[in-house]
């Protein structure tokens, strides 16, 4: 039976949300450099151990190894495999993913490989417009995408660190509102060059908290405080109906006057649960009770502590059996 993501947790995203919000944090994709291993597609086929499916995608040649695992390889025309792409969170937990694909790990010695790219993602089962409206990002460069239905997503940053937010309901044709936050890391933005060290960082709570790239992102509830129908209040009232808080702040902060002109008018309240908390809780669940089985390679630390209003609050997150598909 095909495994599905089981890391979706249920909790109130904000203190004033009347219903539970399903959300989850995942390792969406890891790309590994296999050129130095010097293995060809023909070598894999001769073993007769895998359900090989070959594809041609534009100028790329790819093969998948398992029917029910999201693991594929890219190879040159001569058959040399130069990259592995794996999606661990397609399984419910780390050890399930590791055990199901162990044959491949032994062949490529995967733990020792260099990492080319790491994608971490968050799914929030809430309308894109609600999450996008109060999103604040430290990246200065951004490119937005639109359709006939309005804004569908935005990319921030460039080069080795790119953050995206997009409307997953539209992109994946889902019957419910769903927003995806995604960070793609390469090169110097990776916590390490090597796969084993990156897995340790993601699995060990204190290391993930230190590295967590989602700390650069906050989601907020935006309200207006009506003082009078003056020009500034009306500007905020009507502009915030059609643009996000981030665009509004950048437009009105050109002369660093945003706080002086609008701080008393616009109330920005951070959600109780932030993206950095969601990725930590999702990965903690993904690795919990599996780390000892990898023996000395990883260390178990599954505590979850969330900072809010400069206080420490231990929040019990209940798994209600809600799954997002791949």
Number of strands: 17
Principal-axes shape call: elongated
Rg, Å, rounded: 22 Å
Number of helices: 11
The overall pLDDT average reads: 80
Distance between the termini: 14 Å
Indicate the proportion of strand residues.
Answer: 25-35%
Provide keyphrases for this structure:
326 residues; alpha+beta; eleven-stranded antiparallel sheet; two-stranded antiparallel ribbon; 17 strands; disordered N terminus; disordered C terminus
Walk me through this protein's architecture:
The protein is of the alpha+beta class. It contains 11 helices and 17 strands. Strands 1, 2, 3, 4, 5, 6, 7, 9, 10, 11 and 12 form an 11-stranded antiparallel β-sheet that branches. Strand 5 and strand 6 (81-86) form a beta hairpin. Helix 6 (195-203) packs across helix 7. The radius of gyration is 22 Å and the shape is elongated.
